[in-house]
Amino acid sequence: LGLVTTAFGAYAATMTWGLDKAHSEVSFNVQHMKISEVSGTFEEYDASITTNGQDNFESADVSVTIDASSVNTENKKRDKHLRGEDFFNVEKYPEITFNADGMEKVGMTEDGNAKYKLEGKMTMHGQTQQETFTAIHNGTVKDPFSKKPKAGWQIRGTVNRYDYGLK
Fold first, then answer.
1. What is the mean pLDDT of residues 147-163?
2. pTM (two decimals)
3. What is the DSSP track for 4-60?
């Protein structure tokens, strides 16, 4: 799994940020036989972040759930294979989850955006591993329609599928 780009909208004082699916995606790139690269997305997913205040992301409680059967590589035959026993085995393991243990601010990007280390437990294919991702806070703005704050994030990392028993 590679990239999660999200825009969250806040709902309360102890900020619980919900996913803005119209402006979000979960995508990935995988090497195929070490000679090419295949990209894809997961079409069904949800995420939430709870913070102590609007700007305190270091205290964030981050939770992501992905419907593994929603994998889409723009190739129906390959997607069917990915849903099968060799890979995601979606009948037995329908979800991929990530629950953060913590988020630590580690600096700034060249563009001046805050950079965080996001650590937590990912469960995929019935196996749980500790993973670390880089989370870039692209900023927070007031939504002109809802009048609520929205925070934009880009979360990237590398996950070794073999660690989860995916062939």
1. 92
2. 0.88
3. EEEEEEE-SSS-EEEE-GGG-EEEEEEEETTTEEEEEEES-EEEEEE-SSSS-GGG-
